[in-house]
TrEMBL record:
Residues 222-253 are annotated as: Disordered. Residues 1-240 form the ABC transporter domain. Pfam families: ABC_tran. One of its GO terms (molecular function) is ATP binding. This is Zinc transport system ATP-binding protein. It comes from the Bacteria. PANTHER family: METAL TRANSPORT SYSTEM ATP-BINDING PROTEIN TM_0124-RELATED. Keywords: ATP-binding, Nucleotide-binding, Transport. The keyword Nucleotide-binding applies. Residues 228-245 have a biased composition (Basic and acidic residues). InterPro entries: AAA+_ATPase, ABC_transporter-like_ATP-bd, Metal_Ion_Import_ABC, P-loop_NTPase. The keyword Zinc-finger does not apply.
Length: 253
């Protein structure tokens, strides 16, 4: 059954009166894996933050699981991995501790973790291929492994919806493959995914829809566009700026 998971209707968001999203409508239903694409600064992160209630809409509405955001209380159903959090920076916590934090919304802070919590943490660690690093300080992990730790933290909460902002940016190939495997398992289990990505890489087969944000509007909503021209070249780093007159660069930054 395809039930509504994310419904944005005529969403408008600006910062300091400067519009970023001008009129965005988006509907994601159960089991979909949607990639949010668009040039650097087009508003992908802003859209994600608006969906999660982290920035206010000046017009329009957001619903999660069919409930208007202001009345939505089931945050344990949502796992969020923000952009470039840097889990390890100065934090002495072990990988297991960071992942276990993903259970807090489910169990409450005052109740000690039980067997179900421990099982969910173990499952999340093994899903991202970090079971053997569980006892290590996060700071000793590579950037890709730290990113996987954050994904495991989101998975440990056993969400129905995963929202990920550039989960594979700057992540090594091994970690990208591990992440793709974990995401595949999550989707097979009935999960719904919205993710921002510049390079789909090993995620490509999992994505069933692409939404391209351009100049505050949805410029494309449908099949995943093929990388075009020089963007398809291996090793292309996707960091160069694009001029305002260029055509909608579906894969540009
Ligand atoms: N907190 C903020 N205050 C003011 N302006 C902001 C804020 N966050 C983002 N912006 C601006 O809003 C625009 C959209 O930013 P956003 O991060 O949503 O884009 P993006 O598509 O996710 O970009 P990127 O690919 O670089 O992550 C940019 O011009 C950015 O500078």
């Amino acid at each position: 059954m395809s039930e509504p998971v994310i419904t944005v209707t005529h969403g408008v968001v600006g910062y300091d009166g400067r519009p970023v999203l001008r009129d965005v409508s988006l509907a994601v239903t159960t089991g979909e894996v949607v990639a949010l694409l668009g040039a650097n600064g087009s508003g992908k992160s802003t859209l994600i933050r608006a969906i999660l209630g982290l920035v206010p809409l000046s017009h329009g509405t957001v619903e999660l699981f069919g409930t208007p955001l202001r009345r939505f209380r089931h945050w344990h159903r949502v796992g969020y991995v923000p952009q470039r959090l840097g889990a390890g920076s100065g934090v002495p916590a072990t990988v297991r501790e960071v992942v276990a934090a993903g259970r807090l919304a489910r169990r409450g802070v005052l109740r000690p973790p039980g067997a179900a919590d421990r099982a969910a943490v173990a499952a999340a660690l093994s899903a991202v291929g970090l079971a053997d690093r569980a006892g290590d300080p996060v700071a000793t992990l590579s950037g890709g492994q730290q990113q996987r730790t954050l994904i495991a933290r989101a998975l440990a909460g056993e969400p129905d919806l995963l929202v990920l902002d550039e989960p594979t940016a700057g992540v090594d190939a091994v970690s990208q493959e591990a992440f793709a495997g974990a995401l595949g398992g999550f989707v097979t289990g009935g999960g719904t995914v919205l993710l921002v990505a510049h390079e789909l890489g090993p995620l490509r087969p999992l994505i069933n829809r692409a939404v391209v944000v351009h100049q505050g509007y949805v410029a494309h909503d449908g099949a995943v566009p093929e990388p075009a021209g020089h963007h398809a070249e291996p090793g292309h780093d996707h960091v160069h700026p694009h001029g305002p007159d260029e055509p909608v660069g579906l894969w540009s930054r």
